[in-house]
Amino acid sequence: MKIAFLGLGRMGRAIAKVLLEAGFELTLWNRSPASLEALVDAGGKLAKSPAEAVKRADVVVSMLADDRALREVMLEGGALEAMRRDAIHVNMATVSVPFAATLAKLHAKLGQGYVAAPVLGRPEVAERGELNLLVAGPPVQVEAVWPLLKAASVRIWPIGDVPEQANVVKIGANFMLGVAIESLAEATSLAEAHGIEAAEFIEVVTQTLFAAPAYQGYGALIKARAFEPAGFSLRLGHKDIGLALSAADQARVPLPLAAAVNARMLDGLANGDGDKDWSSLYEVAARQAHLDRRGS
Amino acid sequence: MKIAFLGLGRMGRAIAKVLLEAGFELTLWNRSPASLEALVDAGGKLAKSPAEAVKRADVVVSMLADDRALREVMLEGGALEAMRRDAIHVNMATVSVPFAATLAKLHAKLGQGYVAAPVLGRPEVAERGELNLLVAGPPVQVEAVWPLLKAASVRIWPIGDVPEQANVVKIGANFMLGVAIESLAEATSLAEAHGIEAAEFIEVVTQTLFAAPAYQGYGALIKARAFEPAGFSLRLGHKDIGLALSAADQARVPLPLAAAVNARMLDGLANGDGDKDWSSLYEVAARQAHLDRRGS
Amino acid sequence: MKIAFLGLGRMGRAIAKVLLEAGFELTLWNRSPASLEALVDAGGKLAKSPAEAVKRADVVVSMLADDRALREVMLEGGALEAMRRDAIHVNMATVSVPFAATLAKLHAKLGQGYVAAPVLGRPEVAERGELNLLVAGPPVQVEAVWPLLKAASVRIWPIGDVPEQANVVKIGANFMLGVAIESLAEATSLAEAHGIEAAEFIEVVTQTLFAAPAYQGYGALIKARAFEPAGFSLRLGHKDIGLALSAADQARVPLPLAAAVNARMLDGLANGDGDKDWSSLYEVAARQAHLDRRGS
Amino acid sequence: MKIAFLGLGRMGRAIAKVLLEAGFELTLWNRSPASLEALVDAGGKLAKSPAEAVKRADVVVSMLADDRALREVMLEGGALEAMRRDAIHVNMATVSVPFAATLAKLHAKLGQGYVAAPVLGRPEVAERGELNLLVAGPPVQVEAVWPLLKAASVRIWPIGDVPEQANVVKIGANFMLGVAIESLAEATSLAEAHGIEAAEFIEVVTQTLFAAPAYQGYGALIKARAFEPAGFSLRLGHKDIGLALSAADQARVPLPLAAAVNARMLDGLANGDGDKDWSSLYEVAARQAHLDRRGS
């Protein structure tokens, strides 16, 4: 199976590495070609443009930042046109629900396939091939790319035949994660305002009711106030809450928690913290409660 | 150690049972004396009034529903006056921050002790003696009641010298739990509005990012729409979110998520669902999204 | 008609003055007796305690700060007990719905009357006898105090027989006012972030869609950033939003806007701005949007 | 001055009528050509396409429903290309901030002008030539179209040189209007839950603190529960709150009230009420408080 891989940021590189190690043949393209040596050493070939990368591929995997980047590469950049008529596009990034639907249609018009396969997990997890994949698309296409999906993941969650539904699940899960962080930030600021140490509060809740990796990981960052470098940036977190709010507007579903988290994120972004980890929502909570004005 | 135990609802009975089995001598009082046979069979003695129950006790344990019930029993009911001057009151219920502070002062005036020991865990957990206890109070008093606390719990979390701080931690933890449920309710309704089965969405998120007992337990209730009988009722959940909002108002801490959850709970309460489990927040989400109007 | 007037802050003094000028006989009591000379010069008599003030009065008018002050004066201070059995208490302050109901019952038990008459209007308006009064209570009692109410107001709005319903209307109106201020604060911060002068935006909206005294008055304060001295303080505004949220919790009515305004007020209070005018909500909006970080 | 007028819904027809009466020469185009007889009788000429309508015009006025309609007509429909190189486009509709900026750039590239002139006022007001216009654009262009703007309005509010800033002001004003309606809906539902008639509450507040046309107009609709036909539909109101939230996201400004109103609107839209007046937010409030379950 010849694979073209478009978009080699930290997550993309991790997955591409795993695929090369599993024996797949990869042609690579990234906007900035820097730091692809390791992949080339592992057998990957570099292409000079998206169109060149995809033209002979059986499967095109994309892991691009957002709707806009994907549009630039696939539509304006010509990759969609350049793909073979029987090739399948596996999109592993989180994109908006309507754009996923649009892409699926454009591919179908050209006789191409489109499978949505957004990932749950961080780059470290991807490097071990232990991502969870949310997969949706026409069964025959999903089956065709199954070996590739299997190689990249610890588990595949089939979501159904309609590609954008995988995006909805991913968007819903990320929304819940943003809310979990914000709830930890709010509760910690409440505890501190009542004279309890942040570290003490976080330890109690993340070892009892919330003894789960997500809470423990973000709790540790808040305890240590270690918001840089970002594991997942506030800017991307805001993008994902925005996708949830858009998907909710489109389907007419009130999401009061998403709206509340979004407003707090804007305080952080306005403060210039877009590149910090999204657990820096704690700093917004501390600032709005003016914890620094309180005696020790 | 002679113990008076006031308040024998489901949680109170579970703890009293464990204490009797551990060899403590218990005098019991409950507003409605029904269903205390098992405890009497296990060696507990019944008292006819709170005052009678406490008068010879070294330690008075209370597990009453809310501030009002506690006020009626301890103040208006005369239990505080009737306690020995060297006795210690261990309050295991979730009460408001100012009322905890008030009680501590009143006991101190009479030379009595006051230790806050709110619990994390459900009645089934209490029956196995596996609660987590959040304990705060003057060290010498905490030490004096330690054997009792130890018998009732799997782990004791010392929070410090100021009793009401244990209540703040408990209130913060419960607020986070309410938010977790609401986020699951919102995300599930979003998924359903996009044509994804509730059960499918819940399975994916509670086996990946949110593989934690709290999410899995409430997720199972939502999947099964099994909101009655309540494990923890919407009415009590609303009381606890109210305690968080009060503690936040008192200490001037904005809690936008708590405010959002509270508004959704009021929809449920207004619909007459106060006795359902608080995971029935899902029903509020489904109603406000009018999921029943959508084609299948 | 002999009147006892309890509570002579700025609003109380304004109303008392108008009543004296209308020929009523007034006995005055205030916690701090300072600055009552003008009223004494106008014919008012000073009493040394609430009980002394009320003992010969046909009507007791109260204008105290909040539930607690009223409780201290009427219940703990003994004024209720000291009132004649056929006297009527006219409460012009904004109190909570349950406390208004409680007071009505206590008075009725002693054969006394209770009429709620909260005011709409600021002290300047009260000085001209031009308040709007929201009046509720048993018709025969309302009729008995009508001349007094008429003297103090430009218009009386009868709300019905149940005293606390007048408080609900007053609380609802003040909630709407808090929301109007917050909406002006948010919209102005949005305009500024897009490079439009605050003064320009405020002028346009308060001379077109919102050409109403409330918007124009608060708009002028925001334009001038003139938040001190307060016409109505953020602390009192927060008390009133709290009364709305309590009334809503009691009656199970979701009020998402009140919850949002409350969270913003807490940011202001935590910043130490309780004594500023409540239009300083603009400062909260500007701070959360970090307008000061933006180039001019 | 030869004018092309694109978009003749109720508001567009009202303005076109006024311009014809003021002696301007108009070429008209509307997607559906129905109900333009009155305008033709008054001297307007019909065009078969946007391109045909604009090709000889000095000024092109557009009053189209939203970004998408404007894009279809101006870009995909070829009107922009067909305009003379020295013509000026006066856009009187409410469009998004980024699209206004994009349009301004596209026109400038072709040597054409672009003036934003969104309106404040309803169709009845427009028919009397009494709109308020918010006008922004390069001074020389604004001056050139001044006679036209003057004929259509009671007052012109110059907002500055940057066209999209006029849209920001309009979006801010409409956001405030949506909040005002929602606050009236919430407060009225609170009053009703406490046993007060909706009509009584609305009368008191709209004749005292909120004696302004906006509150009185929407208050009357709520009192009469007269939500159809819509003066301004919930669907359009939701579009406008969405524009406010987008403008806020873009400029990083938290708008908690807008987020709260948006969530309530989604309940209404999900219930199938998009074509009702946006004061039907009252029905959402009544439904979430389950007022129909309460005794009369």
UniProtKB/TrEMBL annotation, chains A, B, C, D:
<dbReference type="GO" id="GO:0016491">
    <property type="term" value="F:oxidoreductase activity"/>
</dbReference>
<dbReference type="InterPro" id="IPR036291">
    <property type="entry name" value="NAD(P)-bd_dom_sf"/>
</dbReference>
<protein>
    <submittedName>
        <fullName>Oxidoreductase</fullName>
    </submittedName>
</protein>
<dbReference type="GO" id="GO:0050661">
    <property type="term" value="F:NADP binding"/>
</dbReference>
<keyword id="KW-0560">Oxidoreductase</keyword>
<dbReference type="InterPro" id="IPR051265">
    <property type="entry name" value="HIBADH-related_NP60_sf"/>
</dbReference>
<dbReference type="InterPro" id="IPR029154">
    <property type="entry name" value="HIBADH-like_NADP-bd"/>
</dbReference>
<keyword id="KW-0520">NAD</keyword>
<dbReference type="Pfam" id="PF14833">
    <property type="entry name" value="NAD_binding_11"/>
</dbReference>
<dbReference type="Pfam" id="PF03446">
    <property type="entry name" value="NAD_binding_2"/>
</dbReference>
<dbReference type="GO" id="GO:0051287">
    <property type="term" value="F:NAD binding"/>
</dbReference>
<dbReference type="InterPro" id="IPR008927">
    <property type="entry name" value="6-PGluconate_DH-like_C_sf"/>
</dbReference>
<feature type="active site">
    <location>
        <position position="170"/>
    </location>
</feature>
<dbReference type="InterPro" id="IPR006115">
    <property type="entry name" value="6PGDH_NADP-bd"/>
</dbReference>
<feature type="domain" description="3-hydroxyisobutyrate dehydrogenase-like NAD-binding">
    <location>
        <begin position="166"/>
        <end position="284"/>
    </location>
</feature>
<dbReference type="InterPro" id="IPR013328">
    <property type="entry name" value="6PGD_dom2"/>
</dbReference>
<feature type="domain" description="6-phosphogluconate dehydrogenase NADP-binding">
    <location>
        <begin position="2"/>
        <end position="156"/>
    </location>
</feature>
<dbReference type="InterPro" id="IPR015815">
    <property type="entry name" value="HIBADH-related"/>
</dbReference>
